[in-house]
Amino acid sequence: MALGTDYAQQDCSLARALEVVGERWSLLIVRDAFYGVTRFNDFSAHLDIPRAVLTARLRLLVTAGVLRKEPYRHSPTRHSYVLTEAGRELWLPVYVLARWGERHASDKGPRIVFSHASCDARLDPFGTCPDCHRLIPPDEVMMQPSPGATAPMRKDPVSRALARPHKLLTPVDLETAA
To answer: 102-108: long-range contacts (C-beta < 8 A, 24 or more apart)?
Structure first.
């Protein structure tokens, strides 16, 4: 018997949120959108996700207002997927959950360091800049591989692009990643 996709019997805001981002792959798609992945084929290659599942998850995230589709080519039409304001509000839960995973579910520790782009201070476990004493929004966050991180496990173009310092929400540059 397949699991349901909703929590109809739960009168809870967390249950409603999980209906949007709680399915397998959904938060990883959102994470990649923060990292600057915008195109279907790039999500597919970086996540190694079945195309049908990716299509369904992107459709759900667009319908829920987390992502919006923007055409980048018209013949044939191709769309990029960009975080909406509601989607950008997911930065803190994604960031904190990833930090939790580093501490409690990973034997390799942090693979990515997130810092405040304007002062270069590493963000604390709650997304705050220790120098500026404020929560840093995703468009002010720089990501780069942790100094102790081993070589990327994946060799796809997105992983290679993300192996260089990169500001969140900036589309990944796959041209120089080859």
So the answer is: 108/149, 108/150
Counted residue by residue, the chain has a size of: 178
Q: Hunting for tokens 């796959």 — which residue is that?
A: 174
Check if the beta carbon of residue 96 is closer than 8 Å to that of residue 103. no
- pTM for the full predicted model: 0.91
Q: How many CA atoms lie within 13 A of 106 on its CB side?
A: 13
User: Mind giving me the DSSP string for 43-111?
Assistant: HHHHHT--HHHHHHHHHHHHHTTSEEEEEEEETTEEEEEEE-HHHHTTHHHHHHHHHHHHHHT-SS--S
pLDDT tens, 40-78?
Answer: 999 999 999 999 999 999 999 999 999 999 998 888 888
Q: Which of 66, 79, 82 is nearest to 23 (CA)?
A: 66
